[in-house]
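User: Hello! I'm new to structural biology and keep hearing that structure can be predicted from sequence alone. Could you demonstrate with GTPase Obg? Please show me the input and the output so I can see what each looks like.

Assistant: Of course. The first part below is the input, the amino acid sequence of GTPase Obg. The second part is the output, the predicted structure written as tokens.
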Amino acid sequence: MAIPSFVDRVTVHVTGGNGGNGCASVHREKFKPLGGPDGGNGGDGGSVILRVDPDLTTLVDYHRSGHRSATNGAQGKGDHQAGSKGADVILPVPDGTVISTPEGEILADLVGPGAEFVAAQGGKGGLGNAALASSARKAPGFALLGEDGEQRTIVLELKVVADIGLVGFPSAGKSSLVASISRARPKIADYPFTTLIPNLGVVVAGDTTFTVADVPGLIEGASEGRGLGHDFLRHVERCAALVHVIDCATYEPGRDPVSDLDTIEAELKAHGGLEDRPRLVALNKVDVPDAREIAEMVTAELEQRGLRVFSISTASHEGLEALKYAMAELVTARRAEQEKPDTTRIVIRPQATGGPEFKVRQTPEGSWLVQGEKPERWVRQTDFANAEATGYLADRLNRLGVEKALLERGAVEGDEVIIGDGPNAVVFDFAPEVQAGAEILARRGEDHRLEEPRPAVQRRKAKDSEYHAVRSGELSPSGDLSEYGQGWVDDEVDLSPAEAKAAAKAAEKLARKEAREQTAGQGPDQNG
């Protein structure tokens, strides 16, 4: 299938580069084994930027390749070496490109050379442990991960920036008019729908220079999808004035200049947004005798509607000078009404600020969902394989007030807490009022919350207490506890090698003590 040379609407998938991870490193040199943290920050990912290039007139490059991605940022290194930033990708677009979402929300309207829009922001690089060091945490054993780049699907729609728009039925002579008053050379033939793309021409009338664009032939029902005109009506939205080019020499039955004008006006009204544009009427092909007579018959009626009418011939160039200067007057008046911007207009749509930094709600399943830019970003930056990094995240969430908000809404210990919504969501078990260990002075890599006794250890302590209570006579034995450790089940004996060795020594010591006591108790009887 052949690819068209003119494309005015495309869908592009853009992806920003990922940020590089921060580095967790400790400076080391001879006679100075622990010289402090020196891990560098990761580099930011590159962004995808759309920028107006006045030399472009079509979006065909993105029709061929609809996926564009920026490069990733490099990971940080030791010795305070920050990772390099990813390179931005600049996508040139024609002047007059409108950027929107697939749902129709307009993101930017790029008009003027150099106007640009960041379509996909690159991810931020993660902080290294040198940047995370503080007076309370002098040697962090972790670094933050880089953020993923933004992914977005956008729709690029070209609206030609022209001063005068020519509208009319197929074969009315619009392309011939552009060729006659400018140096543009569009395709011209004696069959309908010769023009398949909008043609632009630069016209000079006295001291005024302006551009003229012709829209491929409109027919009745074009606004509803008939013919080609509905695809190109957007190109006259920016025009200062419209010129109706009417064929006075058509041989089609049922057509005349007045009905042609009414039909085209009905399509423009159905398209919408063009009611305030001034109109001119060009009765074309008056070089044909019958056409001249028809033009003279309808001129008075059209002027009664308040329209300026010009009888022209693109073949003999009759009436073209008067039409050119009339166009120039409308363009000059329109430019005078509009304030000329001091700089290139760049559309910026900042996000709303203020309000809570996160929100908490309960899901139908009973879990608690925490949503907000900061908590979700912090989760993405955390390396959960590192206990100290997990503790640092808990400290940040606690300072932000997440734990307090959960308690106020009725969350209890053990409830499932989800931070984020989507594939990157992280699930925690709620443990309120637990002091995080990342801000407590401790050896690097330790988290005091992980030092809580295991259930098996607690059961062993209960057995020990029961054993000593039986020996002292305070409690009747509930099982065979004649020897230390007797009566424990296998799953409760969860000892490390050091604990097992210490338990064995304690058992031997108790056994010797019991033997001495028994010997001392039997001694007098034997002597007697």
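User: So the tokens describe the shape?

Assistant: Right, they're a compact way of writing down the 3D structure. Reading them back into a model, for example: The chain has three domains: 9-158, 164-339, 359-430.
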